[in-house]
Amino acid sequence: MVCETLDDIKMHLSATEYGSYLQNEPSPLHTTVIMEKCTLKFVDEYKHMLCKATEPFSTFLEYITLVLVDTPLAPHFSECITSKDLDDMNIEIMRNTFYRAYIEDFYKFSK
């Protein structure tokens, strides 16, 4: 496969599952559009896989998602952060405390 232009890439991707994500994009195509659409396709596939996964794989997928609201990371906020902590001075301490709690929880899950 030889692609000399971004439209060539679009043409080759049209024969794949990525094609529907790029089909309505007008020319001239930009690299940022290709990246956005390919990332969107990847995220959609990941969400589909997460919905179909069973334990313990589903929990593992939630750990690597790193979305703070809908994953095992959310409970660590209530354990590590209070409203008084939300100032610039404590950001590094909060980050390290949160990261430690997350790693400990992941370690327990991995055992």
Automatic annotation (TrEMBL):
InterPro entries: ATPase_csu/dsu_sf, ATPase_V0-cplx_csu/dsu, ATPase_V0-cplx_dsu. It comes from the Eukaryota. Pfam families: vATP-synt_AC39. One of its GO terms (molecular function) is proton-transporting ATPase activity, rotational mechanism. GO terms for cellular component: proton-transporting V-type ATPase, V0 domain. This is Uncharacterized protein. The lineage of its organism: Eukaryota, Viridiplantae, Streptophyta, Embryophyta, Tracheophyta.
